[in-house]
Amino acid sequence: MPDTILQIQNLNLKYELEFHRSDSVRDIFVGMIKNPLQMLFGDKDVFHIIKDFNLNLKRGERLGIIGVNGTGKTSLCRCIAGMLRPESGEITIKGQMRSIFDTNIGIQPELTGKENAILLARFIFPEAKSDELKEIVRESLEFSELGKFLDMPFKNYSKGMQAKLGLSLITAKPTDLLILDEVFDGADHFFQQKISQRTLEMIEKSGAVIFVSHNFSQLEAVCNRMIVMEKQNILYDGNVLKGIEYYKSLKR
Amino acid sequence: MNDFRKLFWAQVPYLTLANMKSRYRKTFAGFIWVVMNPILLYGAQSLAFKTFLRLELPNFFTYLLAGLLPWIFIIQTADMATPLLVTNGHFLKAMKVHPLVLLLSQVLDNFINFSFAFIILLIPVCFADGVSWHGLFFLPIGLFILISGVIGMSWLLAILNIFYRDVRYVVSFLTGVMFFLTPIFYPVSYIPEKYRWMVSINPFYNLIQPVRSTLYQFDLENMLKAFGIGLGWSGGLLLLGALYWKKKKNVIYYHI
After folding, report:
1. In chain B, which residues have their Cβ closer than 8 Å to the Cβ of A28?
2. Which of A37, B6, B106, B212 has the fewest CB atoms within 10 Å around its CB?
3. Cβ pair B93:A85 closer than 8 A
């Protein structure tokens, strides 16, 4: 029986752009002297990022989100992840959630890749106990094929190496709701295939997945449902291939 | 809230440890390097103000220790915490991380360094100069007030710096100015009556005073007064930091 993992009702997210006039203390100082009234009572620009958004995601659904830049894909994911607090609306999640928006992350660039991985695992899997974390890190590092580079400072890693480390960690463990926002870039061709395999395996075991990408073949490989976002809301919802076609037709 | 407490214990200590490891370059020499900094500054100021300028202040070494070391802790933390959320913006945007976890680890890291330098200096000063033994008992409370205020201040500055990227330069400039306007190496009694108000609105002074009042010329009434004022300041700073964070928690993701 397919049960609902994620339910979003009437979600609204706004963003007040009140800092467009000045982004440094010096500018404020200059502005205050030149035009104090404008500085104090100037208008705010309000952007409606997501408007009356509704979505239902069931167990087993792997949702791809596609849309041109600035349509609110990442903001939507950040709302679900609990990083952004929406203006109004309700987000209900059943079970555990994990969300990743970037894979090239080193928390302490001075430390080695391995030390960073151990630290990072604590943030990616906050629910895991120490023993489990150790196992996750050990397995991921082996998978990453970084070998002797693991003892090199993270700051000396190339983009691809950073991505390998991050990707290996993220894909180590399934969860109920997984959010991946444009994360599968940067690794070399051979690793790309290997990580795709691992990701698919993990996604198979996960409850539901939200996958944001601009890469059509990745979307096809991962997803079984697709939404196209435009102007703060859903324009298309349904089949993956048709979704991609629909999206392409938007720009014609 | 409960969730946050759990996360706090699962993340802050490890991040603090990683900070320290990174800062000490994983060597004992690196540790000495970091701890030597405040000790050298203390030595130089003792020499300059006591021996060269001949400030006539009883128990000068205790006075300077109890003022200068907390001061260094405050400005070093402000200096390192202010750009923290911007330099870690990548990490903050990559997954759900509470910015306070980053800030607390930075404050804790600095506090541990401060504690080592403080203890190394406190032991000889205790025996050679005039530290009040009664007061030592209350020192942890004074330190608690100090660290709370520093957390609040760092929180505020770090968020401000997201929106106004030159805050960090303003802060380092202002702390340079404030060093001379804050009674650290001279006592308040040197300040003419009509300038005293400057001290009463000085957050640095009011956060240092709870610590100093336990060590220097201990007097229960004076200390309690310093505790009260200090608590007011640190509570106020924490509240300001929390409110500002609450107001801006969405917007910061579009600015880092």
Report:
1. 164
2. A37
3. no
pLDDT at B6 (0 to 100) = 75
User: In this predicted model, what pLDDT tens digit does every residue of B97-126 receive, in sequence order?
Assistant: 999 999 999 999 999 999 999 999 999 998
Q: What is the ipTM of this complex?
A: 0.86
All residues of chain B having their beta carbon less than 8 Å from the beta carbon of residue A25 are 164, 166-167, 170
- Positive or negative, the CA dihedral A59, A62, A66, A70 is positive
Q: How far is B182 from chain A (nearest CA, A)?
A: 24
Which of A17, A18, A22, A25 best probes binding to B when mutated, by most B CB atoms within 10 angstroms? A25
pTM of the model: 0.91
How deeply is B219 buried, as exposed, middle or buried, from its count of CB atoms within 10 A (0-12, 13-18, 19+)? middle
What is the token pair recorded at A132?
């489990």
Residue that the structure tokens 């290997």 belong to: A194
Cβ under 8 Å to B: A residues 44-63: none
pLDDT tens-place string over residues B33-63: 888 999 999 999 999 999 999 988 889 999 9
Tokens standing for A93?
Answer: 């999640």
- Higher-confidence residue: B143 or A188? B143
pLDDT of residue B63: 94
Q: What b/e sequence results for A75-102 when a residue is b if at least 16 CB atoms lie within 10 Å of its CB, and e otherwise?
A: bbbbbbbebbebbebebebbebbbbbbb
